[in-house]
Amino acid sequence: MPEDISERRKNSKAVDSNGPIEVTCAIIEKNGQVLAAQRGPAMAMPFKWEFPGGKINPGETPENCIIREIKEELGVEIQIKTMLPPSSHSYPDLYIRLHPFVCRITHGRIKPAEHHAVQWTAHDRLLALEWAEADVAVVKSYLNYRIGKQGI
């Protein structure tokens, strides 16, 4: 049975009909791999993979948002290395603008609070995961960033 739209919005942390929902996500790097998070069964788009993050609160900067969200969702502190270009995606019931940050963990041990699973994934295996639609463009942007960074 299809999930109720209001429930999807609540689960996706996005409620706004006046424009795009501003959301951040963290591409957390460690030892040549990236952290991917799998959405839980009660969330919108259950079991799809995503980069962890969440909705920017009023008056909050994207940088402050991603630091807060990762602390809440994963229990770790991060350092932002760089920001990638934002990307936008329209779902049937909402429109989001995703602000991706490449980060590294500076303190703590990952303890997922919201996600079904998390895993470290090699760069060349990222596209093999079944990503939430909005994250696909972010994965591709990140892979292009990695190519440029390596000078290939």
From TrEMBL:
Catalytic activity from the UniProt record: 8-oxo-GTP + H2O = 8-oxo-GMP + diphosphate + H(+); 8-oxo-dGTP + H2O = 8-oxo-dGMP + diphosphate + H(+)
CDD domains in the record: NUDIX_MutT_NudA_like (cd03425)
UniProt protein name: 8-oxo-dGTP diphosphatase
Domain Nudix hydrolase residues, every copy: 17-143
Stored InterPro entries: MutT-like, Nudix_hydrolase, NUDIX_hydrolase-like_dom_sf, NUDIX_hydrolase_CS, NUDIX_hydrolase_dom
Family of this protein: Belongs to the Nudix hydrolase family.
Name of one Pfam family that matches: NUDIX
Organism (species): Desulfosalsimonas propionicica
GO BP, sorted A to Z: DNA repair; DNA replication
Cofactor(s) needed: Mg(2+)
Molecular functions per Gene Ontology: 8-oxo-7,8-dihydrodeoxyguanosine triphosphate pyrophosphatase activity; 8-oxo-7,8-dihydroguanosine triphosphate pyrophosphatase activity; 8-oxo-dGDP phosphatase activity; 8-oxo-GDP phosphatase activity; metal ion binding
Record keywords: DNA damage, DNA repair, DNA replication, Hydrolase, Magnesium, Metal-binding, Mutator protein
EC numbers on record: 3.6.1.55
EC main group: hydrolase
